Amino acid sequence: MYRIETPRARIKRELRSIPPQDRERVIEAIEALQEDPRPYGIVQLEPNVYRLRVGDYRVIYKVFDKEQLVIIGRVARRSEKTYQDFEDLFE
Questions:
Q1: Which long-range contacts (CB under 8 A, 24 or more apart) does 7-11 make?
Q2: Which domains does the chain have, with CATH numbers?
Q3: Which of 35, 54, 57, 88 is deepest in the core (most CB within 10 A)?
Q4: What's the pTM value of the predicted model, to 2 decimals?
């Protein structure tokens, strides 16, 4: 089982900005990454960095297999800015 980390306060703020019914689905999808960090339908953005689609929202995260760790980098509604500078999220 993988451990989920959301090290940035920005993630909590992003989640609070999502309407409650959608927020619940996004949180469930993030929690499901504990069991399977690479579920069907994800898109690999670069090595070990993935995008998970949950309705109109996107979760960008990085998987560290050796440590069995998933770090959430961004939770956002899909737009031109969603994937902007995603490489910097995990530095």
A1: 7/71, 8/73, 10/74, 11/72, 11/74, 11/75
A2: 3-82 (3.30.2310.20)
A3: 57
A4: 0.90
